[in-house]
Amino acid sequence: MKSLFFGGIHPAGNKKFTKSKPVAQMPLLSRYHVPLKQHIGEACVPLVAIGEKVFKGQRIADASEAKSVPIHAPVSGTVADIGMYRDPVAGNAQCITIQSDGKDEWLGGLLVNRDASKLSRDAMLSIVRKCGLVGLGGAAFPCHTKLSPPKSKTIDTLIINGAECEPYLTADHRVMLEHGDRVIRGCVMAMKILDVAFCYIGIEDNKKDAIALLSEKAKGSAVRVVALPTRYPQGGEKMLIKAIAKREVRCGKLPMDSGCVVHNVATMKALCDAIEDNIPLIERIVTVSGSSIRNPRNVRVRIGTDFSDVIRFCGGFSSPAASVIMGGPMMGIAQADVDVPVIKACSAILAFSKKDISEQPESPCIRCGRCVDACAMRLRPYLLGILSEQRKYQTALLEYDLLDCIECGCCSYVCPAKRNIVQYVRLAKAKNTLLNKSVRK
Q: pTM, whole model, 2 decimals?
């Protein structure tokens, strides 16, 4: 099947290690470290105190900012500490540590059984926010915010990302196969909230079983499944909109400017759980794979579980891990150690031995143009990298569309000079953010 967007690459999928294995459930642990910032926006403030008894699903932290969601206890027990702990994104961050009581007891009256068809849009939005839902594709954008676009934006299409184009990742694939009914019902609920008539689930054609299953389960609804070419980064919002809705998201614009809202299949399953059963987001499915993992598999993991415990559940390391990544190998975040907790944005834990890590030194750009050919956003990645090196951050921002870069890593993947272009881009973005903050002050 021909690619439906410009650029992109074909990295080795390496999904065979986990795609056919049913999701395994992590056993109850004695202690969980729950970070207070697990989404884009303001960090939450604790609502509990050290020594306080908490129940599974209880709201333990929240924030007042619109782009924020509450955090809930993944287990019943006692608040053992509120303080700094290792964090997979920030390095260190404030966490609530819960000592399990072994009972795994839900908060009384929390779980209910609702008929979503009888709920209003506002009622559903309120539930989504109260249950702490964020996008589970990796960005962790508050779900209720994305489902309530400004009135000035005319939204007519909901697109659901089932592409899972990153190598090794199969968590979304298993969600579709094991929770297809809930994915479809979640899509129908999201359509009602957005008041749209069209919903498409885009799935790469290397997941034929998921395409067939969801197509069958979607019969009788307004949800349609679309088979997409297997090409990275097919799962990017703008790539999906181009491939499915045949619309271009112009430079500097957002998906909603094209009339589309994009969510993830796992998010739709979580949305169904929240609206029908009032289940807050306290766990997620995580792909655990890579050459250093003894027993690669997909695991249902509670938020706050240390990476080390998840890896141990998967048999531990089969060889010393030279690199551990949260997320996919293309866009994930490298970790200094495994004593960090799983957060809502953690789609995978990947561990690789030294033989799988490229240690070739970076050399100067040779202007070959391969990164330009591979860039799905039609940018000039080599130039963004050079400008960042030269500390011309504002030039990259104002003249070369820095913010349009989705940091997919295609440029670094194809670069014969082994230049860390994505890192240069992230540095330039960070420097511009700091500059804008100082200007506002």
A: 0.95
